[in-house]
Protein: Transposase
Organism: Pseudoalteromonas aliena SW19
Amino acid sequence: MANYKPDLSCQNKFIPINFAEQILPGTFEYALCYIVENKLDLSGFDAWYNNDKTGAAAYPPSVMLKIILLGYAHGLISSRRIAKACEHNILFMSVSGDIQPHYTSIAGFVAKMHEQIEPLFTQVLMICDEEGLIGRNMFAIDGCKLKSNASKEWSGTFDELGRKKAKLERASKRIIERHQSQDGLGEELITQDLKQKEKLDKSAGKITEFLATHKEKIGSKGKPVKSNITDPDSAKMTTSKGTIQGYNGIAINDDKHQIILQAQAWGSVGEQQTLQPAVKQLKQQLDKLNTDKPKDEHTIKFTADSGFNSEVNLEYMAKSGFDSYIADNQFRKRNPLFKDSETYETEQEKRRLKRSKGKPRLFTSDDFHYDEATQACRCPAGNDMWRSGVNVKSHNQQYTRFCGYLKDCKVCPLQQQCMRKPPIKTGQQVQSINNESRKKLSYVDKMKVKIDSPIGRRQYSN
């Protein structure tokens, strides 16, 4: 039988360690320490401290930056886990010089020093540019949903939060009323109820304080949107795995070595609304980089997926100077390479087909008979419709809007094919694009022509 030496990997051993020898040249840790200690200007942190004569010594900003960035590189995003690594992991101990900061100090540094940390991002990009890591040939933007450490139960508009507060106060009041009406309650039950009342009062007070110290969020359509008491900057977002409380993480990277030039988390806006501010920040970063290198924006290509496709965004990108390629939801379906494949059907289309299985097809605007010369319109059932609007603007297009008579729509035999719900106040509405507006291609139509061309498909696939 074979005889092997024992595995002692779980055994403790006291050995002398030279921390400097643990950071080997050519590794990420070596590059991190060299850049932070020799390349970055950390003088902006000095103004934060005023302890040269009195007070305890502070943790050096260079050490805090190194252990935080090292932790993030290894997937440790929690301050507690980074602090624990500084106590037990030899690599973190070597990078930090065995200082071992408390997790509250790490969390405070990230939360309070964001204004001092942000300019370091540009300094790192300038170092990458000096090393020739940024090509300026093509940029790509993409995003992902990031879950925040906040409960969805504490989300709502100010009106909803006000009703929740009133509900908590009523529940607390009922506990007192029950005690007053039943003096013979046991001591254990009384103690349990008092704890429950204290919890309800604390929650109601938390809502009261939030409503008094914060302003209500207003969405892009001018209506109030939900705020979160625990994390006011986050928002409810729909993902493929359900609804989360979190952020839209948006990043723009260069194609040469996948260097990220712009990154930010957005909690109060949708993905489409992040394109314009992200591109503006990208231009600011490019202006700060080495000006000796050519940076003709007309030769720089910019790609984005269908999540950023909108008339407003395409118009902005057309005027920005970038050679943009932004796909729409039907881009793959128009590509003959995927004509016979179901692999690239969107999940939304699959759900729509599943819902509509066995149901009659809903009419589209093409099923309505519109005569632009007489400005008249008839529905698929042959009933006349009245003109409810002329030159109605939508997505930079002008439409003529028609509405069916309520008396006709209520008894129409084609109602299920025409309307999702039975009419109550008005009949079916339909709008047709005006002839003059039809001659003027929208930016969405122009992008479809551009991205469907052989060159456009090749550029987008890169």
Remarks:
- The CA atoms of residues 368 and 380 lie 6 Å apart.
- The chain is about 40% helix and 15% strand.
- The first strand starts at residue 138 and ends at 147.
- The mean pLDDT is 83.
